[in-house]
Amino acid sequence: MNTQLWFPENKSPEPYDKDMSRRSFLKFGTSSFLGMIAMQHLQLPALSAIDALPSQAEHCIVLFMNGGPSQLDTFDPKAGTANGGPFKAISTSAKGIEFSENLPLLAEQAHHLSIIRSMVSGEGNHERARFLLHTGYAPTGSVSHPTLGSIASYYMDDEDFELPSCVNINSPTFTGGFLGAAHDPFLVSNPMEPLEDLKYPPQMDRHRFRQRLRMLKDLEKDFLKKRDTRSTEAHQAIYKKADKLINSPHAKAFSLNEEPITLRESYGMNQFGQGCLMARRLVEAGVKFVEVSLDGWDTHSNNFESVKNLLSVVDPAFSALVKDLADREILDKTVVLWLGEFGRTPRINENDGRDHYPNGWSAVLAGGGVRGGQAVGATDADGIEVVNRPVSVPDLFASLCFALGIDYHTENYSRMGRPIRVVDNGAVVKELFA
Amino acid sequence: MRIIQRTREFRIISLAAITLLAFGAAVEARISTSTKHLDEYINTTLKEEGIKPSKRSKDAEFLRRVHLDLNGKIPSVEEVVRFLDDGSKNKREKKIDELLGSEPFLDNWTRIWVNWLVGRGNSDRRFELTNWVREALARNLTYDRFVAALITADGKITENGAGGFLLRYDLSPIDLTAQTSRLFLGLPMQCAQCHDHKSEEWLQEDFYSIAAFFATTEYERIYEKDENGEEEEIDVVLRNIPRGSVYIPDAEQETPPRFLDGERYKGSPMLRRRALSEWLTSKENPYFRRAIVNRIWAHFMGKGFVEPLDGFGEEYPPTHPELLDWLADDFAAHNYDLRYLMRTILNSQTYQRTSAANKHNADDETHYSHAYVKPLNAEQFFYSMIEATGFDRLQKRRDRGALEHMKRRYLERFIFLLANGEMEELEAFNGTVPQALMMINGPLVNDSGDHKARGSLINDILKRWRTTADRVDQIYLRTLSRPATASEQSYFKRYEDTSLYRDKELPYEDLYWALLNSAEFSLNH
Questions:
Q1: What percent of chain B has pLDDT over 90?
Q2: B178 vs A246: CB contact, 8 Å cut-off?
Q3: Which of A246, A311, B148, B409 supports an S-S bond with A102, CB 3.0-4.6 Å?
Q4: pLDDT tens readout for residues B377-401
Q5: What share of chain A is helix, strand, coil (3-state, %, to 5)?
C-alpha cells in the first residue's frame, strides 16, 4: 500500500511548477499587465484600422487537444536544453520556424500556419481551463456562457440552411448557454459510424411525417391556448428544421464513403483523422463551425511516448486538412485553430512526464485571413517565461471573432439579465493578420 | 472500526425510517396550519392586485404534476386509473404522503441533490456521495445537519460518502466558497472571487475570509495493487490539518478566517470547517433557511421568490418577502424537516391550481394565480419516456443486458442534449434538432410505437382493447396520464376515417407519436 499526500498549499492536485508559475505570474500580474493596458491604448488607432478590413472567414474549424498538449514537444521545441526532452527540432516550409520532429507532414504546411507561442491563460485545472478555452470566460457557476461554436452559430447562422451551424465531432463541448439551445452544438460521437437518427424508420416517409406533424399541431392547440404559448412556434420550428435536415441533399456531408479511399487514408483511418475529413466536408457544405477533439494529452507520466503516439495521429490529420482546404481554395474562407486547454510544464517531472502549464503555451492558426509562415510571441530559451507578446484567451477569441466578422464588443444578456460581451477584456492580435 | 459499525447501524435505521414515514404519513394526512397560512398570504396578495386565480386542477393534472415534482417521472397507467377511481376526499394529501415515503422519491431527490451539490458531470467519488445522500434522505436527516455533514466531512470516503462534496471541488477553498455561498446561502459571492461585487456589499476580502475555513483540510489517496499488479485507488481519506492559508491574488498577507457578519474565528485550525458549519446553519443566519425554502419553492412552483436562486441581495428583491421569511422561519421551527416543507407547499391551493390561465390572469408571472408550466429537465423527460414507452416491460422479454445498455446510452444522450456540465438546475429540455431527430427517428419512440412488433406498447394496446374509444383512451393515459376528451376522440375518428393508409392500424401509431411529441408531454403543468 502506498499513499500520496496533497496539501492545501498546492492549488491543484496535479500541480504545475509552482516557482515558475509564481515568477511568471508576478511578471504578468503586475508590471506586464499594466504594460499591456498601456499597449492597448497606444494601439487603438492601428486596431480600428484593422477593424475596418473586410472579414474573410465564413467558417471555423477547431482541433481541440483534450488534456493539454505539450508545447515543447510540438510547436515550440527547445531541443538540446534540459527541458527539451528527447525530440529533435526540424525545419519547416516557413523560414526560421522549427517544429518537433514528430510533425514532418505539418512542417511542409508551415507556410499556411501562424504559431502563437505566448499563450497565457492562468487556469491550471482541466475543467476550468476547458471552459475558459471554449467560452472565453473563466467559469463562475452562475452565468452559462455560450461555447465559441454557439457564438458563431448565433451570429452567422443562415435560417434557410438545412444543416446545424455548429457541430462537435468525437466529444461534446459546452452548450449555447444564454444564447439558447437552438445554438447548442450538434454532436457526432463517432465519425466512422453512420449518424444515428438521420434516417426515417421503416414505414415512415416524408408525407406521413408531415401528416403526423399536422396531427400534433391540431391536438396541442387546446392545451397551448390557455398556457404560455411562446414555446409552441419554437417547438414546431425545431421539428421542421429536423425534417429539413433528414431530407436535405447536404446531409451526405456526414457520410465519408463518398471520399476517395486514398484521401481518407491520408487523414488517417482513426476517429480524429476521419473527424477532420468530416469537418472539411461539413464546411464545404456550408456549416459554420466544427470542432474535432482528440483525447489523451494529460501526460503526467510517460510524456514522450504518449506524445509521439498522439502526434502520429495529429500530424497526418492536421496537415491533410490544411492541404485539402488549400487545394479546394476554401482555406481563405476557413479559419483553423489547433490548441488544448493549456500547455505542459517545461520541466520534466520524475515520471518522465509534464504537468499542467497555463503560463506560456502554444496555439496554431491557419486560413481565414491569418498570415501563414510566422510565429507570434515567444518563450525564453528554457520555455518557461513568455518574453514577447503575451496573448490572453480573450485576445485569441477577439482575433477569431475578427476573422469571422463578429463584432466581439457586442453585449448579449445572460439569463439573469446581466449584459455580457462576446469577448471581455480582449483585443485582436493584429500580428496574425498583418 | 467504530465508523464501520456506525455505517451498518445507519443502514438499518434508514430502512426503518422508510417504513415509519409511510406509516406515519397515512395517519397524519391533513392540511397543516402552515399550508393554510401560505394560501391566505397568496390569496390576499392576489385580491390586492385584483387578479382572479385559476380553478383547482383536475385530479389527473394534479397527479401528473406531483409525480413529476416528487418522483421525477409521470405516473404509471395503473396508478392514474387507481387515483381517478379513488372516491375519498383526502386522496391528494394521502398521495403526497405516499410519494414522500416512496423509493422512487428517494431515487429522484437523490439525483436532484447530487446535481445541486456537484453538478451533472462525472465527479470524483460521486458514487459514494450519491449513496450518502440517499441514506440521508431516507432517514430524513434534517437539512441543517445534512449541510453540516457535507461541510465537515472527514475520514474515509468509503465510510463517509459526504466527503464527495469536498472532493468534487478538489478541496479548492475558492471553489468550495463559491459553491457554498450560492447553494447554501443563495448569495452570488463567486463574483467577489475576482473583484469586489459590483452591486452587492460583498468584498473580495469577504470571499477569501470564508475560503480560509476550507484551507486546513487535506486528502490522502490510498492505493493498492490489483491482481494485474496495477496500482488502483481504493480509498480517499479527508482530514483536518493544523496549517493552511489563502491569499487574495497579489496580497502579501494571508486572509484569516472570518464569518460574513464580521466576527473573526480564533479557534483551532483543526476545527475551522466545524465552526463554519455551525455559523452557516445557525438560527441566527436567516440566509441559510431562506435559500433552501426559495429553492424548494421554485422547484415546485416553477418560479422562486428570488430569481436567480443565488441572487439574494439588493439586486433581486423577493416577490413575496414576508411569505418567504415566514416559510423559512416555519421550516426552522419544524426542525429543518425538508419533507415538512414539501408537504406544506404541495398541499396548498396555490400549488394545486390548474396551469390553464383564465381571462384575467394570463399575463401574471409572479403572483401564482395559476400553476406555471415548467419544462421537463433531461432526467424527467428520460424517465417519463421510459414509463410511457413501456421500456421496462419490454425488458422482460428481451436480453436484459442489451436493453440496460441501450437505456444507459439513451440517458447519456439525453443528458448531453441538454447538459452544460455546469450546475444549472432550471436547464430545460426544450427542443433542439438532435432531440427532435431522436423523437422522430429514434428507436425508443418508434419501436414501442410499431403496432406490428410483438410486445410493443401499441401492439399490446391494440390486442387488449377492441373499440376505437378504448384504444384512444389507453394511448392518452399512457402518454399524457389522462383519458382523451370527447373532442379528442372525435378528432381521432375523423383522422382515422379520412386516412388513406391501407394498414388500418397506422393512425394509432400516429396518435401515439403525436402525443409523445406534444408540449403537454414535454412540460410539467
A1: 65
A2: no
A3: A311
A4: 878 888 999 999 988 766 555 666 7
A5: 40, 15, 45
